[in-house]
Specification:
Length: 170
């Protein structure tokens, strides 16, 4: 259940109520996408460490978040140039099915965990808890699309790079 879901998607539309925070070529990412990702990173860090990050750590995480969005923009631009950023209808359906399966798996896991603490757990409570944690179908779908695009970029741009075991170990 510790799946880190970055609330990013394809290029965001500029809106007056959600200004662009990062622009890389043809792709833009909004302030709410950046803030959502930063909040997720800080919450995960706080949960794992059990304390609140210092201001310096928060600034470092903000920079890491901005850097990740810039990297994502570069990947999406390069994939677009290569004609590999879009998905066919069958690929989109497969991505949807994968997201549905992952959501159902997480839902069942949370339901079982909640039942251990309270036998009267309702489906609505489980769904609301998942949403509060950021595990919506859309967030899971966006994460699967992101991973698929990253895999495409690796295949397209890195397939001829061969690492020695010592490099992997480093």
């Amino acid at each position: 259940l510790l799946m880190l879901v970055l609330p990013v998607g394809a290029a965001a539309q500029e809106a007056a109520d959600d200004p662009v925070a990062v622009r890389v070529g043809e792709f833009t990412y909004t302030q709410s996408q950046l803030q959502g990702s930063l909040d997720s990173m800080l919450e995960l860090s706080q949960m794992l460490r059990g304390d609140t990050p210092s201001e310096e750590e928060k600034q470092a995480r903000l920079q890491a978040t901005v850097d990740s969005f810039v990297g994502l923009g570069v990947i999406e631009n390069k994939l677009t140039e290569a004609g590999k950023n879009d998905f066919t209808d069958s690929e989109t359906e497969a991505l949807n099915q994968s997201a549905r399966s992952k959501y159902e798996e997480l839902w069942q896991l949370l339901y079982q965990q909640m039942q251990q603490g309270d036998a009267d757990v309702s489906e609505e409570n489980v769904t609301a808890q998942l949403e509060d944690m950021g595990y919506t179908f859309d967030a899971i779908y966006d994460e699967i699309v992101l991973q698929t695009r990253q895999n495409r970029a690796i295949e397209l741009f890195c397939k001829d790079i061969i690492l020695k075991q010592s490099q992997v170990d480093e």
